[in-house]
Specification:
37% helix; single chain; transcription; 5 helices; alpha+beta
Length: 159
């Protein structure tokens, strides 16, 4: 990855629908070399997919719940089973294995508290959990899907 690739990624993270010709113009490349770079980053897995970011309220999932899970099961088989169960719950949009006091953390989006209660009841009926704690987001202060590129390893392209 060089500085031009980082510039391309910055533009794509802001608007993945931007035409390649415009991206090329903004980074100082013609269309074909720019497209080749984008394709290479897709092949290398740097660009995993291109998606549309939706307004949660407009698709009726305006309530965000952070769910902390503790378990007494700490083995690979149970972890894979839990991941399989969570994979079936479309309300879970993020799912992490954690260090510290909490074993797993989920971000769940639902229309309202009643929908979260239904989610919770389905969850505990599917897998045994030691402790589940929920925190409802009162408001969103910052949200982005753009990753910081300051830490990306850049090849010295000035040589």
């Amino acid at each position: 990855m060089d500085k031009i690739d980082r510039k391309i990624l910055t533009l794509l993270q802001k608007d993945a629908t931007m035409p390649v010709a415009e991206i090329g113009r903004k980074v100082g490349l013609s269309t074909t070399p720019c497209w080749r770079r984008i394709q290479k980053m897709e092949e290398d897995g740097v660009i995993q997919r291109r998606v549309a970011v939706l307004d949660p309220a407009k698709v009726n999932v305006g309530v965000t719940v952070f769910v902390s899970v503790k378990t007494n099961e700490h083995n690979d088989g149970w972890m894979r089973k839990f991941a399989g169960v969570i994979d079936e719950f479309h309300e879970v949009v993020e799912f992490y294995r954690m260090s510290g006091d909490v074993d797993y953390l989920m971000r769940v989006v639902v229309p309202d508290i009643a929908a979260y209660d239904a989610f919770y009841k389905r969850l505990i009926s599917r897998i045994n959990l030691t402790d589940v704690s929920s925190a409802f987001a009162m408001g969103q202060i910052k949200y982005t899907t753009a990753l910081p590129l300051d830490f990306a390893i850049v090849v010295d392209d000035d040589k």
